Amino acid sequence: MTSVALTIAGSDSGGGAGIQADLKTFQELGVFGTSALTAVTAQNTLGVHGVWPLGPEAVRAQMDAVFADFDVAAVKTGMLFSGDIIAEVAAGLAGAGHPVLVVDPVMIAKGGAHLLREEAVEAMREKILPLSTVITPNIPEAEVLAGMMIRSLEDMEEAGRRLIALGTQSVVVKGGHLEGEERACDLFMDGRGERIWLSAERIRTKDTHGTGCTFSAALTAFLVAGEPIGKSVVGAKRFIHAAISDGLGLGAGHGPTNHWAYHRAGSALKGEVLIDS
Ligand SMILES: Nc1ncnc2c1ncn2[C@@H]1O[C@H](COP(=O)(O)OP(=O)(O)OP(=O)(O)O)[C@@H](O)[C@H]1O
Ligand SMILES: Cc1ncc(COP(=O)(O)O)c(N)n1
Question: Distance between CA atoms of 124 and 159, rounded to whole angstroms?
Fold first, then answer.
């Protein structure tokens, strides 16, 4: 049977992040993607040029329409923008019986544009985190949610513990932004003490727009395929590593990653991600 996932996120007109990255990634991994749009952004590789949020009721109506007609195996959230949208998304997820939930707590785009209002951070912490199967913050997002600075791999572990204490079942702290690290290291932790460090060569490229969205969409797709969470995180790391490695060179700024690289390279990629648990 065809598996279905729902992404609740913003539109990136440049096609590298947001809803577009999620649907491309789902498609590459054999999952049928549905969507609930939270906002339209006018965006390209040079930055975010405008943001138009939808009303919370429009977000909820899209969710309800999808849930009413499809057997949704997992939900992914990305840009949620405001406290009002977050409250409606949380209510919609409760109405759907709390499906498997991957939360990418998108806050600020690479160029500095706010994709989550500051007033909404508390709602993210209190209303969305406790519903999540896994949350995938980058370093700046983990710092805000966990209330601490992250300067080292030890700090990433402490932040992971704090996020689990806030109610998520598990967390991937993504280390793409950790300065001084030779490799791109991410940490998976769950509430039962499982811990997996994943690392891959840090690729020297400016084309990393949408890496966070793509990683968490791949994680969602592996969960939908029935993989356990640890294996899903490893699969997502392989997917994003392939997508960054095989860049497309599009646009004049921070270009998108190559969403079809993983599928094309297949098992040839397997050695590149190191796992330490
Ligand atoms: N230059 C790089 N080379 C290899 N892997 C990378 C690189 N940059 C990021 N990654 C990996 O990509 C994934 C996304 O990480 P990152 O920390 O960049 O997330 P993000 O900040 O949410 O993404 P974005 O910058 O798109 O918002 C992680 O697995 C990270 O280790
Ligand atoms: C609609 C939308 N959602 C998420 C991101 C984050 O992606 P990035 O941090 O790679 O710019 C984005 N730029 N736009």
Answer: 16
Ordered mean pLDDT values, 10 residues apiece, the chain (277 residues) = 96 98 98 98 96 98 98 98 98 97 95 92 97 97 96 95 97 88 92 94 93 98 96 96 94 96 75 76
Is residue 104 within 8 A of residue 213, CB to CB? The reply is yes
Distance 193 CA to ligand 1 centre (A): 24
* pTM > 0.90: yes
Quote the number of domains for the chain.
Answer: 1
Per-residue confidence (pLDDT) for residue 16, from 0 to 100: 98
Ligand 1: centre distance to CA 174 (Å): 7
Catalytic residues: 174, 208, 210-213
Q: Give me the amino acid identity at 79.
A: M
Q: Which residues contact 145 (CB under 8 A, 6 or more apart)?
A: 105, 121, 124, 125, 129, 135, 137, 163, 166
The Cα–Cα gap between 128 and 40 comes to 21
Nearest-ligand number for the alpha carbon of 49 = 2
Tell me, in angstroms, the distance from the centre of ligand 1 to residue 126's CA. Answer: 26
The CATH number covering residue 226 comes to: 3.40.1190.20
Which atom in ligand 1 lies closest to the alpha carbon of residue 176?
A: 17
ipTM value greater than 0.90? yes
Domain limits for position 70: 4-276
